[in-house]
């Protein structure tokens, strides 16, 4: 019988200095012998987030109002206030009978996120929010204005179980999945802030959503899918954001990439690859112990075939660890082997911790990496490093605020 084990993508003969992810404990580790510990277990939450209209489709919202003895047909107006006017304040809802406004809002628009911090960076074009949820758990989102778009980076989980050693959230472990409405509330608040001119440059329309905040969206698949529905469907169901402006970023849960391809929502898939060979990726991305680079790239290519959406390959460049030109060539070969024009590569300068092995590549090394990919015909765009002065990389703000509060108590 054929051996069904995946073929491992090996590194060719090594050239250049090689720093390994195991040379130091994970970034932010609290003990010197700390090891990345991958976990798919979702801890049992202490209680459930209050039910919110964004957890339900329109029919579900009508049903919920009916069960509460309120007029079901008001679900439509309530939904439009939420998804079109970005409000949950009864005083704004003058088209609803004054006697019912509060009851309707109490029933379907509970307060889910309270703001702990809002930090501005990049001359006011970036705002990083730290939110506290009903149970005291904290998550972040980052709002970024660009010339041609305004993007929100949302969290899908509090903490993360994927344990990537260079990622601040990865060191926290997973606290819990966010409810659909906890994800959607991040978007509603950012959409209101953009509209109200809180970003430098005046009022803006929130146009793009990326699932690149805290957490692994695929581990929270059951709440991710309804969140994508609320994002893409037009009012009164949802915000009506184009699927092509939504990016779901994953560390590589292959079966769920395949499932996402069948959901009929052609969102952009981003794959956090960070290494083209299993030898390095096994240590850099712990989930590689389950699904190898070859399987992941096959699934990503299937996603492209099924949706027509070009896949983003994320590659955080880490000095002397994964930034060798031969790795750029190996990556290009692996992509080209599967077809042309189906993927583009996003090298990301690592949010560095000077003095540790987790530092970003030297500029000329980064340039050589990019040139190698481009020479091989791969579209390559270096990701800008928005918000790095406000602990922009995922999980860093939450970790920093927690440390400050510990110092103060
Ligand atoms: N779990 C998902 C989404 C969250 S992380 C995923 O892994 O894709 C979003 C992106 O930020 C990922 O590509 C992740 O690898 C990257 N990232 C994490 N820590 C980083 C750091 N210190 N510097 C640069 N990118 C980082």
TrEMBL record:
Catalytic activity: adenosine(37) in tRNA + 2 reduced [2Fe-2S]-[ferredoxin] + 2 S-adenosyl-L-methionine = 2-methyladenosine(37) in tRNA + 5'-deoxyadenosine + L-methionine + 2 oxidized [2Fe-2S]-[ferredoxin] + S-adenosyl-L-homocysteine; adenosine(2503) in 23S rRNA + 2 reduced [2Fe-2S]-[ferredoxin] + 2 S-adenosyl-L-methionine = 2-methyladenosine(2503) in 23S rRNA + 5'-deoxyadenosine + L-methionine + 2 oxidized [2Fe-2S]-[ferredoxin] + S-adenosyl-L-homocysteine
Enzyme Commission number(s) from the entry: 2.1.1.192
Cellular component annotations (GO), alphabetically ordered: cytoplasm
Sorted UniProt keywords: 4Fe-4S, Cytoplasm, Disulfide bond, Iron, Iron-sulfur, Metal-binding, Methyltransferase, rRNA processing, S-adenosyl-L-methionine, Transferase, tRNA processing
Predominant location category: cytoplasm
Every Radical SAM core domain range: 146-389
Active-site annotation: 140 (proton acceptor), 394 (s-methylcysteine intermediate)
Places the protein is found: Cytoplasm
Region span, Disordered: 1-37
GO molecular function list: 4 iron, 4 sulfur cluster binding; metal ion binding; rRNA (adenine(2503)-C2-)-methyltransferase activity; rRNA binding; tRNA (adenine(37)-C2)-methyltransferase activity; tRNA binding
Protein function: Specifically methylates position 2 of adenine 2503 in 23S rRNA and position 2 of adenine 37 in tRNAs.
Family named by the database record: Belongs to the radical SAM superfamily. RlmN family.
Protein name, entry field: Probable dual-specificity RNA methyltransferase RlmN
Organism: Actinomyces graevenitzii C83
Gene: rlmN
């Amino acid at each position: 019988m054929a051996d069904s084990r995946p073929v491992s993508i090996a590194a060719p003969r090594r050239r250049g200095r090689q720093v390994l992810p195991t040379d130091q404990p994970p970034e932010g580790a609290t003990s010197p012998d700390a090891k990345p510990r991958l976990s798919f277990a979702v801890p049992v939450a202490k209680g459930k987030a209050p039910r919110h209209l964004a957890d339900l489709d329109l029919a579900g919202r009508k049903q919920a109002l009916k069960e509460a003895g309120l007029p079901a047909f008001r679900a439509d107006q309530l939904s439009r206030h939420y998804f079109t006017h970005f409000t949950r304040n009864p005083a704004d809802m003058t088209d609803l009978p004054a006697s019912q406004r509060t009851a309707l809002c109490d029933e379907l628009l509970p307060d889910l996120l309270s703001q702990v911090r809002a930090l501005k960076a990049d001359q006011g074009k970036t705002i990083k929010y730290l939110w506290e949820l009903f149970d005291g758990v904290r998550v972040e989102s980052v709002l970024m204005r660009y010339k041609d778009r305004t993007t929100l980076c949302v969290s899908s989980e509090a903490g993360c179980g994927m344990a990537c050693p260079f990622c601040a959230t990865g060191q926290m472990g997973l606290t819990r999945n966010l409810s659909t409405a906890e994800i959607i509330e991040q978007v509603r608040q950012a959409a209101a802030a953009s509209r109200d001119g809180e970003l430098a440059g005046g009022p803006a329309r929130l146009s793009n959503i990326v699932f690149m905040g805290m957490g692994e969206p695929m581990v929270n698949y059951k709440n991710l899918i309804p969140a994508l529905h609320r994002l893409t469907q037009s009012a009164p169901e949802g915000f009506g954001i184009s699927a092509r402006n939504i990016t779901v970023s994953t560390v590589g849960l292959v079966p769920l990439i395949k499932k996402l391809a069948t959901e009929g929502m052609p969102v952009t898939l981003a794959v956090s690859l960070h290494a083209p060979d299993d030898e390095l990726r096994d240590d850099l991305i712990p989930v590689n112990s389950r699904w190898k680079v070859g399987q992941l790239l096959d699934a990503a290519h299937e996603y492209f075939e099924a949706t027509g959406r070009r896949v983003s390959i994320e590659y955080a460049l880490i000095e002397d660890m994964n930034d060798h030109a031969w790795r750029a060539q190996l990556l290009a070969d692996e992509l080209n082997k599967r077809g042309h024009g189906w993927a583009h590569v996003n090298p990301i300068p690592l949010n560095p911790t000077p003095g540790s092995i987790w530092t970003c590549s030297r500029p000329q090394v980064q340039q050589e990496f990019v040139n190698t990919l481009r020479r091989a015909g791969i579209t390559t765009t270096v990701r800008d490093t928005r918000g790095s002065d406000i602990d922009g990389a995922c999980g860093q703000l939450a970790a920093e605020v927690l440390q400050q509060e510990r110092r103060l108590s």
